Known about the structure:
Layout: H1 3-28, H2 36-58, H3 76-80
Helix pairs in contact: 1-2
Amino acid sequence: MTKDSRNVVISAVAALLLVVIVFVFITISPWILVGVPAVLWAVAGIVRAINGSADRERDSGNEKPADHPRRDLPGARANEAGLPPVEDPSQENP
């Protein structure tokens, strides 16, 4: 299991646990329904924070520029997929 998939599983379990806790409190007192939107907003924030942690690590600036080829260069996507580069017709000599 990769780190990203583990984070997704952890966030899903945490969100499910919070929803179960909310339902338990709702059965005890229906007046707690007033606070449900705030709890759901908090769950969504936790899930976003956990799922976004990989993006922050990737964008931290610790990688070398060669680790991520520029996508605007001709053939960059082909090189990432292991395919031969595509010739750019605008670079041809007349």
